[in-house]
Design goal:
alpha/beta; four-stranded antiparallel beta sheet; about 525 residues; about 15% strand; seven-stranded mixed beta sheet; 15 strands
Length: about 525
């Protein structure tokens, strides 16, 4: 209560600034998690090469909201291109980032009053790395820096004074909690050193007392111990009780030990307690003072944290591009959609991991004149993979990432729709067919000429001729009314006849070869229509 996290100033976001992706499409395309709810196997897990927590969060945010402004997308791509072109710079930047703690989280905890000494150390270490990062960018750059990298350098700021103070203030070994004390370095505050000296000197007096009492009583096994109930006490075994003189005050008798105290030991304990309490109280006050200085600079630290995350994402996407042979897409304001040698990033990575056959790349051109592709072919031939890979390439291009293709030109996609697979929602009274129809209706009502629509097996949730009628009507509506760029996969081969009547509909099929009684899937998309579905 009474605490607020560090908040950035509000900024206006235009309603069409980011690509609209509905929940069903996010789920079908498995952007951040698979249909089974796991991160592994999702697009995010496949492309994430970030080194910092803030970078990973920033990448996930980009994937959730791809940009719609070609100039903003180009600025992000320029960032990635810098690190692709200069691998030495990329390696140096990532070397620094790998040492950078989560500045954003540490600042958030300190602002909420939940931080500890290690959060202050994270702020110190994170801000110290900003200087090294700025030096790396200045020393290794080839020509002028892209606009977003130059802005990140500016936002990294200069924090030498704060880093120096936190460096002097914090001890080398830090506890998790402030109440444990011992986190302020020796020499930072003379008064604290004095209290600590008194406390530690008193403890040496305790050790000296133990030696003296053992000598006086002739009991070498005599120990001076401490617990939270009795405080400091003298402990001997029961067989040595008769050796304890009158000056030893009996406190407790147990089966295996007898405990005593003395006036001298009580006075010493009080002195130790006072010194320890005063030392801890002063440490807590110094901690609050340091946190206060950090929170007063929260805006500058927040900008530095965001800049670190931004550079982490750009360098990580560059590493991905080099590693996976991705290319820079051209994203503009046209209605073009031309992809040469496109690949599904997740399926390709899975094939390589299992050392299976290589991924078969395919072209896709949904530009004006052939903006609606009707894709036929048997099950397991690769229709769904082909549909999804083009949607994922559009998303990657618009988050400012290189894409898995040999060439790519995309006119900005304002909305992305995907209707793939069969699932019911019985809790809301929706059968499999009802879910399919609700999602299809949403697409037909909302898609625009700038949208990209992925439809797979529309009409399969009901009787054959009813389903054929629905699929037929959906194709006509997409072509005549929505005028969207669309990929429409179907087993209703009757729909291929629409190519004679709909000017911008183009028939394509998954190539299959029959060889010696076997069906061989070639996973290639070719112009034309499939003649059979094989029932596989």
């Amino acid at each position: 209560r009474g605490k607020l996290p560090q908040m950035r100033p509000l900024a206006r976001l235009e309603s069409d600034a980011v690509m609209a992706i509905d929940a069903a499409t996010r789920r079908n395309l498995e952007l951040t998690e698979t249909l089974s709810g796991e991160r592994s196997g999702s697009l995010l897990a496949c492309i994430d090469r970030t080194l910092t927590g803030a970078g990973a969060r920033a990448l996930a945010q980009r994937l959730a909201a791809p940009l719609n402004r070609p100039e903003a997308i180009a600025a992000r791509l320029d960032q990635v291109e810098l690190f692709v072109a200069d691998e030495a710079l990329c390696a140096r930047v990532r070397e620094v980032l790998a040492r950078t703690p989560d500045l954003e989280r540490a600042l958030s905890r300190l602002s909420l009053g939940r931080g500890g000494p290690r959060d202050l150390a994270a702020v110190r270490d994170g801000l110290a790395e900003t200087r090294r990062l700025r030096d790396a960018l200045v020393e290794n750059r080839l020509g002028p820096l892209p606009a977003l990298v130059a802005k990140a350098m500016e936002d990294l700021g200069f924090h030498g004074e704060l880093v120096e103070r936190l460096g002097r203030a914090l001890a080398a070994e830090l506890p998790v909690l402030t109440r444990d004390g011992g986190f302020i370095a020796a020499g930072y505050r003379p008064e604290l050193d004095e209290f600590r000296g008194l406390r530690d000197e008193s403890r040496r007096h305790v050790a000296a007392l133990q030696a003296r009492y053992a000598e006086e009583t002739g009991v070498p096994q005599l120990k001076v111990r401490h617990n939270n109930v009795l405080g400091y006490y003298i402990e001997v075994t029961p067989r040595h009780m008769e050796r304890m003189g009158e000056r030893f005050i009996h406190r407790q008798t147990m089966a295996s030990a007898v405990r005593y105290s003395t006036v001298e030991l009580g006075e010493l304990e009080a002195k130790i307690s006072r010194a320890a309490e005063r030392a801890l109280a002063l440490e807590l006050a110094l901690f609050d003072d340091l946190v206060g200085e950090v929170t007063t600079r929260a805006r500058e630290i927040g900008l530095a944290a965001a800049a670190l995350a931004d550079l982490d994402v750009a360098a990580a996407l560059a590493v991905l591009a080099v590693e996976r042979r991705h290319v820079r897409p051209k994203v503009d304001g046209s209605l073009a959609f031309r992809i040469q040698g496109g690949r599904h990033p997740v399926v390709e990575a899975a094939l390589e991991a299992s050392q299976a056959s290589g991924f078969v790349a395919n072209d896709c051109d949904l530009s004006p004149g052939q903006r609606l592709w009707l894709v036929t072919g048997p099950n397991m031939a690769g229709k769904s993979t082909f549909l999804r890979q083009n949607a994922l390439i559009a998303i990657l291009a618009q988050i400012g990432a290189y894409v898995p293709a040999t060439a790519c030109e995309i006119g900005v996609v304002d909305r992305l729709f995907s209707r793939v697979g069969a699932a019911d929602d019985l809790a809301r009274g929706r059968s499999t067919f009802m879910v399919e129809m609700v999602e299809t209706a949403a697409i037909l009502n909302l898609a625009t000429p700038r949208s990209l629509v992925i439809l797979d097996e529309i009409g399969r949730g009901t009787a054959t001729f009813d389903g054929l009628s629905i699929a037929w009507a959906a194709v006509e509506h997409l072509h005549d009314r929505n005028r969207s760029r669309a990929l429409f996969a179907t087993h209703f081969h009757e729909l291929t006849a629409l190519a004679a009547r709909l000017a911008e509909l183009s028939n394509h099929a998954m190539r299959v070869k029959e060889w010696q009684g076997e069906v061989v899937f070639l996973h290639e998309v070719a112009a034309g229509a499939a003649d059979r579905s094989y029932g596989i």
